[in-house]
Design goal:
- The longest helix has 16 residues, at 91-106.
- β9 (215-220) and β10 form a beta hairpin.
- This protein folds into 2 domains: 3-146, Gcn5-related N-acetyltransferase (GNAT) (Aminopeptidase, 3-Layer(aba) Sandwich), CATH 3.40.630; 157-314, Gcn5-related N-acetyltransferase (GNAT) (Aminopeptidase), CATH 3.40.630.
- It is 29% helix and 25% strand.
- The protein has helices spanning 12-19, 22-25, 38-46, 91-106, 121-129, 167-174, 198-209, 256-271, 286-294, and strands at 3-6, 52-58, 64-71, 75-82, 111-114, 133-137, 142-146, 157-161, 215-220, 223-232, 240-246, 277-279, 307-309, 312-314.
- The protein is elongated, with a radius of gyration of 23 Å.
- α8 packs across α9 (286-294).
- It has 9 helices and 14 strands.
- The protein has 315 residues and is an alpha+beta fold.
């Protein structure tokens, strides 16, 4: 889960390290970093104008990842900088689109502008993904612009272990009610389980849910949107399977399941010495099959016409 908040004085020490990092600052003309001081950082912070909004970015472990900002005007400058260890993880796309959305909400008629270095190919790909188009190119810097109509917001999809404070929300989305929309796709041929009180839920599920090798939650931006699981089919614990549930039907068909499966498989292969990890579903759940395939999984078996649901047999 990525957290983005307006920068405060408490963030300045971390921001100082970012600005003094030559790997980060080389693309804006400072290959050795700014070599600035904490005193100068406080002065900069004090001098921020009302139309200048600066945000600090943290990951789910509260590691400082970087900054994003905008300077609101008819032509609004936006930018983002991340430490190298947080690049290529989808953080930049989400954080910058967050700042862009904030700017456009304050002035829907503004034109957003960035001017990446000609050789900063990663930045250029990022800007194109978010809806920027090239306006000018002098062979050294490229001026790119984006309007409200061309803007493409990018969600950040992540998984993380379940914490105790998540359990009540999980109960609401899994066991509080008689039925949930996803039950029509998650083994609907099995009998439905009965609702549980919160106390029953804790007694039955708390221990397993707090085991990070068995469950993670799926986060989209800063919200919990689902759960992903792992379980062994055999007592010898060599046959590992996975499954997932998204809580809100509005979140389907957005690549969330695919990304969550990729992240979960990476995590599980680091935790277990197994040669393969499987996912078993039924032929009626075409979205799950598509997400598994797009995540890199391949069809290895198909048992014909063994699931019976609403008067029809499925594989």
């Amino acid at each position: 889960m990525i957290t983005i908040n307006e920068t405060t004085k408490e963030d300045l020490a971390s921001l100082l390290l970012l600005w003094n990092d030559g790997q980060v600052m080389k693309w804006v003309g400072f290959p050795d970093g700014l070599n600035t001081t904490i005193e100068a950082m406080h002065q900069w912070f004090t001098n921020l104008k009302p139309h200048e909004k600066h945000f600090s970015i943290y990951d789910n472990e509260q590691n400082f990842c970087g900054e994003t900002f905008y300077r609101l005007s008819d032509i609004t400058t936006v930018d983002i900088k991340l430490f190298s260890q947080f690049q290529n993880k989808g953080i930049a796309a989400y954080a910058l689109s967050y700042a862009m959305r904030e700017a456009l909400e304050h002035n829907p008629n503004t034109t957003l502008m960035v001017d990446p270095h000609y050789f900063n190919e990663d930045a250029i790909r990022l800007y194109l993904k978010l809806g920027f188009k090239e306006k000018t190119n002098n062979g050294k810097h490229i001026e790119m612009i984006c309007t409200k109509d061309s803007f493409k917001f990018h969600h950040h999809i992540s998984i993380r272990p379940i914490m105790k404070q998540d359990l009540y929300e999980l109960w609401q989305n899994l066991d509080q009610h008689d039925s949930y929309w996803y039950q029509a796709w998650d083994g609907p041929y099995f009998p439905k389980s009965k609702p549980l009180s919160y106390e029953e839920f804790l007694e039955k599920r708390q221990e397993s849910f707090l085991d990070p090798k068995r469950y993670h939650i799926i986060c989209v931006d800063q919200s919990i949107e689902g759960i992903i699981s792992a379980y062994f089919e055999d007592e010898m614990k060599h046959w590992l399977e996975i499954g997932l549930i998204l809580f809100d039907e509005k979140m389907i068909s957005q690549g969330i399941g695919t990304r969550a499966i990729k992240l979960w498989l990476t995590y599980l292969f680091e935790q277990y010495d197994v040669p393969r990890i499987g996912l078993t579903t039924w032929s009626g759940n075409k979205r799950m099959i598509k997400a598994a395939t797009k995540s890199g999984m391949s069809l290895e078996a198909q048992i014909r016409l063994v699931r019976y649901y609403q008067g029809q047999y499925y594989d």
